[in-house]
TrEMBL record:
It comes from Hemiselmis andersenii. Keywords: Calcium, Repeat. Transmembrane segments: none annotated. The keyword Plastid does not apply. InterPro entries: Centrin_CML-like (IPR050145), EF-hand-dom_pair (IPR011992), EF_Hand_1_Ca_BS (IPR018247), EF_hand_dom (IPR002048). This is EF-hand domain-containing protein. The lineage of its organism: Eukaryota, Cryptophyceae, Cryptomonadales, Hemiselmidaceae, Hemiselmis.
Amino acid sequence: AVEEMRLAKHKKYTKSHKKFRFFDKNDSEDIDRAEFESGLKELGYKSSTKKIDHIMGELDTDGDGKVVFVEFMRPTAKKYKEELELEAMADTDRAFEHFDTDFSGHVDANEFYEGMAHLPGMSEVGREDVEDFFRNYADVDGDQFLTYEELESIDPELMKVKG
């Protein structure tokens, strides 16, 4: 699986590099405004001078009038970061649904223990240890319930059973 992820990342990089090279007609390892405009026209885009200047300004983060590969990739990296953040939120949503068995909108110590008991390796961890973790770490505001935000703030590394 790790190798597949590495290859997929490499493939994505290669694909992005091909797009960059499409615009970099003179193989200078940067794209100037004329190359960018030419590439857009070749792709069938009819952009105004103002629009091209705006896009170049967004891409050219150091303001030298040229876009290097790292700058070219920045919008993609930002989108990737946003996708990772959405995935993390979805993971928290699933976790909250797993623990909040009575759908009350919060998780009490018993629900937390029951939810933890189903995780791999948790059979060795006692109820007292889980409740202690709940009271002294997870329940930040001390109201004896975990909110979505409190559950989200738990470091996943602390939830792993050391073996």
